[in-house]
Specification:
CATH superfamily: Aldolase class I
CATH class: Alpha Beta
Number of strands: 8
Shape: globular
Radius of gyration: 16 Å
Distance between the termini: 22 Å
Strand order of the largest sheet: 7-6-5-4-3-2-1-8
Number of domains: 1
């Protein structure tokens, strides 16, 4: 049983996390809900950052009955708005009890602080690594997974930008080799679009898709992604 199964998430189909902002809550209809399994709230895309407002958005989102990921992405790794680390830490502390998972960049100076918050609240911690320029060597990718698991991350998410097909081969090998370690793998950009479809079939815990505005290069609409997954799975 994988980590998400232990959390009561049905894993009979490849899983999709809808990456949304506060302004996209109104776009979540039955067709979206039928397509997704988790919701990632991208707080760095929110129009307001007060404690009351963020809690209000989270509580509204809980009404969709999907497991929630709280992400406050740094601008260094693709965040929409610069939010300093002390502010991000404040938000994580305040909302940790309301969500199921917390995502923090593995390279962040507040990684250990956020890890401790997740432990205190008994939440799943996702250690994220984004490379928007290239794909590291297989050895580097492997070391990244093992190092972050040793630090206490429940899930290691690695998103890279492939420059050649061999980069996709490396990420595919990583996914197949370390699927028991609870990893999320993504190749971004146009070349990597296909990996958003097939990596969840071969070992990535889930993948990300958009509802409205895309949050990362190559991200697909949730309904289109589910349609393709259903096509390949014969559903």
């Amino acid at each position: 049983m994988n980590l998400l199964s232990e959390q009561g998430i049905e894993t009979r189909r490849p899983l999709i996390a809808a990456s949304i902002s506060d302004r996209e809550l109104g776009l979540i209809d039955k067709t979206v809900l039928d397509s997704i399994d988790l919701i990632e709230l991208r707080v760095d895309h929110f129009s307001k950052l007060s404690s009351e407002y963020i809690s209000e958005v989270i509580n509204k989102t809980k009404g969709f009955d999907k497991h929630l990921i709280c992400t406050i992405r740094s601008t260094d790794e693709g965040g929409a708005t610069h939010i300093n680390d002390s502010e991000r830490l404040r938000i994580f502390k305040e909302v940790a009890g309301l969500v199921d998972m917390i995502d923090i960049e593995a390279a962040s100076e507040i990684f250990i602080d956020v890890l401790n918050i997740a432990k205190e609240k008994d939440k799943i911690l996702i250690a994220s690594i984004h490379n928007f320029d290239s794909t590291p060597s297989y050895r580097e990718l492997e070391d990244t997974v093992l190092f972050n698991k040793s630090r206490g991350a429940h899930i290691v998410k690695i998103a890279t930008m492939p420059q050649r097909r061999e980069d996709i081969f490396s990420m595919t090998r990583l996914t197949v080799t370390y699927y028991r370690e609870n990893i999320v793998t993504i190749c971004m950009g146009q070349m990597g679009v296909i990996t958003r479809v097939f990596f969840p079939f071969i070992g990535s815990l889930f993948t990300f898709a958009s509802v409205g505005e895309t949050k990362a290069p190559g991200q697909m609409d949730v309904r289109r992604l589910r349609e393709l997954m259903n096509l390949f799975s014969g559903s």
